[in-house]
Amino acid sequence: MKIICIGRNYTEHIAELANEKPADPVIFMKPDTAILIKKQPFFIPDFSNEIHHEVEILVKINKLGKYIDRKFAHKYYDEISVGIDFTARDLQSKLKAKGLPWEKAKAFDGSAVVGEWISKDQFADMNDLNFSLQKNDEIVQQGNTKHMLWKIDELIAYVSQFFTLKIGDVIFTGTPAGVAKVNADDRLKGYIEEQELFSILVK
Length: 203
Prior knowledge:
The chain is an alpha+beta fold. It has one domain (3-201): Fumarylacetoacetase-like, C-terminal domain (Fumarylacetoacetate hydrolase, domain 2, Alpha-Beta Complex), CATH 3.90.850. The chain has four helices and 14 strands. The model has no long low-confidence stretch (mean pLDDT 95).
């Protein structure tokens, strides 16, 4: 399986990092080794002093697809979740300044938190989902999929132009504003609407 991540998909997040609004979705990848093992803490890596949380809605692909038409994209996933794209912001800034790829800052071991998968049929509209991240029982990020620059079906169609989507692939759909540093002993919890789908400890 592969993890396909979308960057700069919420206007307020673009503004908070002083990035340019993209003309097309920004895509980067994480290997399967980036997935944080269930019930394990997230260990802050030695190579960064500024790991940021980025909470996101996740989609799990359920069938093989290539050049998927947007109007059929909804048939390519049944389950959604919420997760974290951990980012070594200090390292990313150095790489971006040199025009180098982001992988070391985005795709390191444990950098992808994947919450419990739930049926999308629980919700009336994939384009109006509330999701949030709590840090030490305080909401630090919250978003709604209606604020995405590119909605879920658009992302599936776009990504499939470049990469064949296979069963089990996961798409991280982008983070809203509110990204910030995590510290040892932080407790992070992710929610879609009122459902808690992950709880992890930072060490």
